[in-house]
């Protein structure tokens, strides 16, 4: 039985595929999207949130931290954590009497995860929903996700894989085969824009999209629009035309408007947020993108 690392499970989701769904956010990602709303899923191991508002400056963590890596900040400002030097940060989760530290990530076997998800099978069945594996990048734990998918599929659960596609084909395709639908992210078409926005180019991503489409597996294409980053009209046009070239496998295109819902997580992880001051997407623009998508024969929606 395989073991995987889960970041969290979001129940009753309506944005990650058809019907009511449980979205399983897997730990670890091999992209570094500047607009990532789930920074806690980026690393391969456990993570720790620190909640400044809960800290009472009691000194427990200051005394317990290895290498003197946690020190007092100004009165009322909590503590300063040197995450690179603090080799026992996870210990603070249990040590802090005010719950200012919170562990992110849970190890589970595929059977345990499937059993937990099956508790909501009635909701999946009644709404035409199911389970979506997201992240992070779920394909980085492909064997675990595939084994879990087989258990759920045998129980009649609809499955969706939400992937950026930056995975070797021999790892990705068995996982694609185990699910009913693929939600595929198209962050840019131009490889240089993609590299700037995510830290990698998109040649493998686009080739994998073609391969998945050739299998006939239903694809839900997703396009996030981020002002000043990937909102160039020519690149958007090329993205949509590439998606159209994938043929009948594409069920629809979700045009997603950049948001800052995850910005508070960056502070809790002591990570810089690179897009401070970025303006919101204008609905007029996303309406125009949707219209162009429909003009070339794609079914399109606008989401947040």
From TrEMBL:
<dbReference type="GO" id="GO:0051539">
    <property type="term" value="F:4 iron, 4 sulfur cluster binding"/>
</dbReference>
<keyword id="KW-0949">S-adenosyl-L-methionine</keyword>
<dbReference type="InterPro" id="IPR040074">
    <property type="entry name" value="BssD/PflA/YjjW"/>
</dbReference>
<feature type="domain" description="4Fe-4S ferredoxin-type">
    <location>
        <begin position="46"/>
        <end position="75"/>
    </location>
</feature>
<dbReference type="Pfam" id="PF04055">
    <property type="entry name" value="Radical_SAM"/>
</dbReference>
<keyword id="KW-0004">4Fe-4S</keyword>
<dbReference type="InterPro" id="IPR007197">
    <property type="entry name" value="rSAM"/>
</dbReference>
<keyword id="KW-0479">Metal-binding</keyword>
<keyword id="KW-0408">Iron</keyword>
<dbReference type="InterPro" id="IPR017896">
    <property type="entry name" value="4Fe4S_Fe-S-bd"/>
</dbReference>
<dbReference type="InterPro" id="IPR013785">
    <property type="entry name" value="Aldolase_TIM"/>
</dbReference>
<feature type="domain" description="4Fe-4S ferredoxin-type">
    <location>
        <begin position="77"/>
        <end position="106"/>
    </location>
</feature>
<dbReference type="GO" id="GO:0016491">
    <property type="term" value="F:oxidoreductase activity"/>
</dbReference>
<protein>
    <submittedName>
        <fullName>Glycyl-radical enzyme activating protein</fullName>
    </submittedName>
</protein>
<dbReference type="InterPro" id="IPR058240">
    <property type="entry name" value="rSAM_sf"/>
</dbReference>
<dbReference type="InterPro" id="IPR012839">
    <property type="entry name" value="Organic_radical_activase"/>
</dbReference>
<dbReference type="GO" id="GO:0046872">
    <property type="term" value="F:metal ion binding"/>
</dbReference>
<keyword id="KW-0411">Iron-sulfur</keyword>
<dbReference type="InterPro" id="IPR034457">
    <property type="entry name" value="Organic_radical-activating"/>
</dbReference>
<feature type="domain" description="Radical SAM core">
    <location>
        <begin position="15"/>
        <end position="299"/>
    </location>
</feature>
């Amino acid at each position: 039985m395989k073991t995987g690392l889960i970041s969290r499970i979001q129940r009753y989701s309506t944005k990650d595929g058809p019907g009511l769904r449980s979205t399983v956010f897997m730990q670890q990602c091999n992209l570094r999207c500047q607009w990532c709303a789930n920074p806690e899923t980026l690393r391969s191991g456990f993570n720790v949130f620190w909640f400044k508002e809960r800290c009472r400056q009691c000194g427990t963590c200051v005394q317990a931290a290895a290498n003197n890596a946690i020190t007092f900040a100004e009165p009322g400002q909590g503590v300063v954590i040197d995450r690179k030097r603090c080799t026992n940060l996870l210990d603070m989760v249990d040590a802090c009497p005010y719950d200012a530290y919170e562990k992110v990530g849970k190890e589970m076997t595929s059977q345990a995860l499937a059993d937990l998800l099956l508790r909501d099978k009635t909701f999946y069945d009644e709404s035409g929903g199911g389970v979506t594996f997201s992240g992070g990048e779920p394909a980085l734990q492909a064997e675990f996700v595939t084994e879990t998918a087989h258990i759920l599929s045998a129980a009649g659960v609809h499955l969706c894989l939400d992937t950026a596609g930056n995975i070797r084909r021999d790892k990705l395709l068995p996982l694609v085969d185990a699910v009913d639908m693929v939600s595929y992210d198209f962050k840019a078409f131009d490889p240089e824009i993609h590299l700037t926005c995510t830290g990698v180019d998109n040649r493998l991503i686009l080739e994998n999209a073609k391969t998945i489409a050739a299998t006939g597996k239903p694809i839900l294409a997703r396009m996030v629009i981020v002002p000043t980053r990937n909102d160039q009209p020519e690149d958007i046009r090329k993205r949509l035309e590439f998606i159209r070239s994938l043929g009948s496998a594409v069920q629809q295109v979700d045009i997603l408007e950049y948001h800052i819902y995850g910005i508070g997580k960056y502070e809790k992880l002591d990570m810089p947020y690179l897009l401070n001051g970025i303006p919101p997407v204008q609905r007029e623009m996303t309406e125009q993108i949707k219209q162009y998508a429909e003009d070339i024969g794609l079914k399109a929606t606008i989401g947040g």
